[in-house]
UniProtKB/TrEMBL annotation:
UniProt keyword Protein biosynthesis, yes or no: no
UniProt keywords, alphabetically: Kinase, Magnesium, Transferase
Keyword Nucleotide-binding: no
Domain MoaB/Mog: 172-305
Superkingdom of origin: Bacteria
Name assigned to this protein: 4-diphosphocytidyl-2C-methyl-D-erythritol kinase
Native organism: Reyranella soli
Pfam families associated with the record: NTP_transf_3
Alphabetized CDD domains for the sequence: GT_2_like_f (cd04182), MoeA_like (cd03522)
Gene Ontology terms, MF aspect: kinase activity; nucleotidyltransferase activity
């Protein structure tokens, strides 16, 4: 192709490179100039134009884009008419975009004049949604480049671009129970699963709730198989942690075969795939209870589209497998469920050190000032919070507020992360201090650890372990430390609970909220006695000192 300033007498058949608007002539760029057009330009005073002239081995941009687009397209694709060197592919119906990434790259390496842009492989598409676009960059492409692009497109037994439509599936769901499993948790999982399946044109046609036992799971699968289910979903009351765990054992007890355990997708790492009489079985990760997009969705969509999901496919899901953020930061934020979409980021967790109490059982003016291994009791708590990954430490003062603040500031150099707030209603109970601390937190805080100032054994590693466990998208919105099965303190709370905590009254704190939101509680096992040891009496303090001596 020849491009550049073209004498007007040689412009017939050339492609106008730039719009020409003057003296009554209004021609847009890309116009193929006819003899009549050239005459008008001459009458308007043009002696030359910037134009492209095709050589015999060139193909016009529209013909080239249409040729390449046709060669690329497979099933489920509609192709638009070419215009200005562009030809688009649209999905005929809802499904997944099937894109051969490697061959798209190879095609785009052939010649700078020929380009193809697509959705990511396995992107979910709706009817009439654009899947790909072919664009010829200049006004023409070399015929050899177009021919090579067609050759790449036809070099395998499958097209470069297609849409695999969703096909209706009849799904059966097995949910297991442990002592204390609440029906509302299981009901919620049914609702979330139903929504997922419905969006794919499928249906949940059967559900069984059984004990967390391999034989019980096998029996439930046999019943659902008899009801004509063609995909089986198993949500264990306890997450699968090994390919020989209860859920995979139940699948094998039913005559099934485990294919693969785990996937390089987060959230969704603990998904298990299996087969039962040639039909897919999925052991669900904990995040399947959340409506947020996760690894379960990636697998379920492919199965609904009739695409293979074996070990080879799963292990290739890692690139692009980091799906969700942990405890949102984007603005504006919605605190209704504590699960925001957006880039993954470390959660912003604050530590609330409660140091406002009256110390009535201690027998002294304020136990926070009592000596504990050479420093006031409260200083242990504040130092631990500051040594942790908490982004902010708020100390709630009340009884002898000035004295407590003074000993903290004397023991700890000025820290930008350390703030103080006074609770004037401290005599009304612990809940008022919780409310005062919550009210002092900024809008960018995702969660708070309510830390008691009278637990000197609680160190930064314990606090950091609670923060590491926190993941609302995985259903871990309240993180409670346990020691040998006994729950203790401090407790981490997602932001979604702040309004309820702010309204607390009395001296019981927020314990009742744990019972009301049992499905969002994560117990974090700790070593040692720190999480269950507080200092309420002189005897307790003496015992702690004795244990702490080398």
């Amino acid at each position: 192709m020849r491009f550049g300033e073209t004498p007007i007498d040689e412009a017939t058949g050339a492609i106008l490179a730039h719009s020409w608007r003057a003296n009554g002539v209004n021609f847009s760029k890309g116009r193929v100039l006819s003899g009549e057009d050239v005459a008008k330009l001459k009458s308007a005073g043009a002696s030359s134009v910037v134009a492209a002239r095709l050589d015999p081995d060139d193909m016009h941009e529209d013909e080239a884009s249409a040729t390449v687009a046709k060669a690329l397209a497979g099933e489920g694709i509609e192709i638009t008419a070419p215009f200005t060197g562009r030809c688009n592919h649209f999905a005929r119906e809802a499904g997944l975009a099937v894109v051969d990434h490697e061959r798209i790259d190879a095609l785009n390496e052939l010649d700078e004049s020929v380009t193809v842009a697509t959705l990511p492989p396995f992107a979910r598409v709706e009817p009439r949604q654009m899947v790909a676009t072919v664009k010829i960059i200049p006004y023409a492409a070399p015929r050899t480049a177009v021919a090579r692009a067609v050759e790449v497109a036809q070099s395998a037994n499958q097209p470069l671009i297609a849409v695999a439509p969703f096909k209706a599936m009849r799904a059966g769901l097995v949910q297991t129970r442990l002592p204390g499993t609440r029906d509302k948790v299981l009901d919620k999982a049914v609702g979330t699963t139903t929504m997922r399946l419905t969006s794919l044109g499928s249906a949940l046609v059967g559900e069984r709730r059984v004990a967390h036992d391999a034989k019980a799971i096998a029996g439930a699968l046999a019943e659902l198989k008899g009801e004509g289910c063609d995909i089986f979903l198993i949500a264990g009351a306890s997450a699968i942690v090994d390919r020989h765990d209860v859920v995979p054992a139940g699948i094998e007890e039913a005559g099934g075969e485990v294919i693969h355990f785990g996937m390089p997708v987060d959230p969704g790492n603990l998904l298990l795939t299996a087969e039962l009489d040639g039909k897919p079985v999925l052991g669900l990760p904990g995040c399947a209870k959340s409506p947020k997009y996760n690894g379960f969705d990636m697998v379920l969509e492919r199965l609904a589209a009739g695409l293979p999901v074996g070990r080879a496919e799963i292990v290739r899901m890692g690139a692009g497998g980091l799906l969700a953020e942990i405890a949102s930061r984007p603005q504006p934020r919605d605190d209704s469920d504590g699960e925001e979409a957006g880039p993954q980021a470390a959660p912003r967790v604050a530590a609330l050190v409660l140091a406002a109490g009256r110390s009535t059982r201690m027998g002294g003016p304020n136990k926070m000032l009592a000596d504990a291994e050479g420093q006031p009791l409260v200083v242990h708590a504040v130092k631990a919070a500051l040594a942790s990954q908490a982004v902010e430490v708020v100390v709630v003062l009340g009884n002898m507020a000035d004295e407590v603040r003074t000993v903290i500031e004397k023991a700890i150099p000025a820290k930008s992360r350390l703030r103080f707030v006074v609770n004037p209603a401290f005599a009304e109970g612990l809940s008022t201090s919780v409310g005062a601390g919550i009210g002092a937190l900024g809008k960018d805080i995702d969660a708070a650890i309510v830390q008691l100032g009278d637990m000197p054994g609680v160190g930064a590693p314990l606090l950091d372990r609670l923060m590491a466990a926190f993941s609302p998208v995985e259903g871990r919105s309240i993180c409670v430390p346990t020691v040998a099965g006994k729950r203790g303190n401090p407790v981490l709370w997602a932001r979604r609970f702040f309004p309820e905590m702010f309204k607390l009254s009395g001296d019981s704190g927020a314990k009742h909220l744990i019972g009301e939101h049992a499905d969002l509680v994560c117990e974090v096992e700790m070593t040692g006695e720190a999480a269950v040891t507080d200092i309420d009496t002189p005897e307790a303090l003496a015992a702690w000192r004795a244990r702490s001596k080398p």
